[in-house]
Write a structure and sequence with these properties.
251 residues; alpha/beta; Rossmann fold; 15% strand; globular; binds nicotinamide-adenine-dinucleotide
Length: 251
């Protein structure tokens, strides 16, 4: 494909499927050596089979000990993509403390945990690029029934800017991507669930498409392209940005 990431080492969380997998594959196609991590060995095996540049490692981003030992084993990376995240469906009235804590643990504390573990070696190595998956449903936009999700994804933007400013003179850049509705395995699952309520998968798909001003869903590769740009030196003057890639959803 290209050489935009030649000579760089990258680690990607939740790289077994969806956006994380697309990012791992595009990084590898652009010449990076990629450590694709996830909790699902089967999907990781498929990822590894897709490119000689991809190695895999089981990594549960909820597990601090596992994250710290991964950082010890892997050492310095030039690119860290924090992709893991989960959609809680419902309003504040559907969100008890357990649901709240789980969303915060997986969607934001994991980024704290992983970045804190990998950043020291990145700094010693002269810097790098950190890319965090936020969402249009965040501080950019309220979306119905995305109470816990939107709150955590707003926090991702705050975390991104805080890291960006603290390490701006040390060669570390930190940016967030805010996707709109992207066709991924977990979205397909949400469409199937909604289909049961609204009279079929086609109707549910129509409802998801309807909220996208461009009249279509986004693709995982459209997110991976922006992640690749942020990972590469093409974006050397960009840090602390929260970039909507959402077909105009937040217009
Ligand atoms: P997905 O939900 O299809 O896949 C999630 C992956 O995360 C799976 O491979 C799963 O095994 C892995 N995972 C789950 N728990 C984990 C854990 N504890 N540790 C490590 N890995 C774990 O993914 P997606 O829909 O492509 O979403 C990826 C990211 O993009 C998420 O942060 C999501 O919030 C964000 N996002 C997605 C969309 C969308 O429409 N798909 C929109 C905006 C933002």
């Amino acid at each position: 494909m290209g050489e935009r990431l030649a000579g760089k080492r990258a680690i990607v969380t939740a790289a077994g499927q969806g956006i994380g997998l697309a990012i791992a594959k595009m990084f590898a196609a652009e010449g990076a050596t990629v450590i694709a991590t996830d909790i699902n060995q089967d999907t990781l095996d498929t990822a590894a089979a897709s490119s000689d540049n991809i190695e895999t490692r089981i990594l549960d981003v909820l597990d601090s000990d596992a994250v710290n030992s991964a950082a010890q084993d892997v050492g310095a990376v030039d690119i860290l993509a924090n992709v893991a995240g989960f959609v809680h469906h419902g309003s504040i009235l559907d969100c008890d403390e357990e649901a709240w804590d789980f969303s915060f643990d997986l969607n934001i504390k994991s980024m704290h945990r992983v970045t804190r573990a990998f950043l020291p070696a990145m700094l010693e190595n002269g810097g790098g690029s950190i890319i965090n998956l936020s969402s249009g449903a965040s501080s950019l936009k309220g979306a119905p029934n995305r109470y816990a999700y939107g709150t955590t994804k707003a926090a991702v933007i705050g975390l991104t800017k805080a890291i960006a400013i603290d390490f701006i003179r040390q060669g570390v850049r930190c940016n967030a991507i805010c996707p709109g509705t992207i066709l991924s395995p977990s979205l397909e699952q949400r469409i199937a669930e909604l289909g049961k309520e609204v009279g079929g998968v086609d109707k549910a798909m129509e409802m998801f498409v309807e909220r996208q001003p461009m009249g279509r869903l986004g693709t995982v590769d459209e997110i991976a392209s922006v992640a690749t740009y942020l990972a590469s030196d093409d974006s050397a003057f960009t840090t602390g940005a929260a970039i909507p890639v959402d077909g105009g959803w937040t217009l």
